[in-house]
Amino acid sequence: MRTTSNPAFKNLPTSGGHANFNYAQGQAGGFGSPLGQSSAAPTKTARPMTIDDVVTKTAITLGLAVITGAVTYLAGPPAMALALPALLVGFVLSLVIIFKKKPSPALVVAYSIVEGVFLGAISYAFAMATGMGVGLVLNAILGTVGVFAAMLVVYKTGAVRVTPKLTKWIIGAVAGVAILMLVNLVASFFVAGGLGLREAGPLGIAFSLLCIGVAAFSFLLDFDAADRAIRSGVDSKFSWYIAFGLMTTLVWLYLEFLRLFAMFNQD
């Protein structure tokens, strides 16, 4: 499987953990058996991943995030106090999911709920700061859904092929954006606004547009990783990793749209 910029997909096995599994007979070739031959003792049956698994798990994670996000947003001013705690808890959960070798549906569900709380809180803060209200949130959601759908069409039609060269370019772009964000954060401790990458103005708008473009192309790597996992017969339980990975990219894209539209509407 090709390398991907999304750390969540690094947990996907390069081939099905039951690649030699004979699903018709319910047996798998052992380490000491010739390839294609069945061992004497049957092993536990494992179902290969399908596109339906990916769609279902992704719908569950996104649905939970949307519901908890909406409830948090509607909570009003008290919601803003939840932004930082939810961000920290979500970050810890994401690290556990990424470094945990086995997929954990419970952790992914917990991450989705906490991330929804964070998104609802930060969305309310941006909406009130700009005076746009829920209109800002709806615009950011429409932008996110539009880009996701467009990149899915681009991938499915083969308009842009995921080649090793493109993969390296996207990974390099993601790393570059992350470094710039980190440098800007460090600079903000010494100079108000840091480098100006996250401030309203031409530079801030240009950087947000760059981030949106990089996030959009990252979807191509996500789709490719999921497609290869399905074709290689990876166990269906790994669809939770794919759902988690897609959600992290969607969250990033949504936050960039939220910030971009907020910049356009700041006094």
TrEMBL record:
TM annotation in the entry: 54-75, 81-99, 106-127, 133-154, 166-191, 203-226, 238-255
Stretches assigned to coiled coil: none
Pfam family, one: BaxI_1
Keywords attached to this entry: Membrane, Transmembrane, Transmembrane helix
Name this polypeptide is given: Bax inhibitor-1/YccA family protein
UniProt organism field: Saccharopolyspora cebuensis
InterPro entries named in the record: BaxI_1-like
Superkingdom assignment: Bacteria
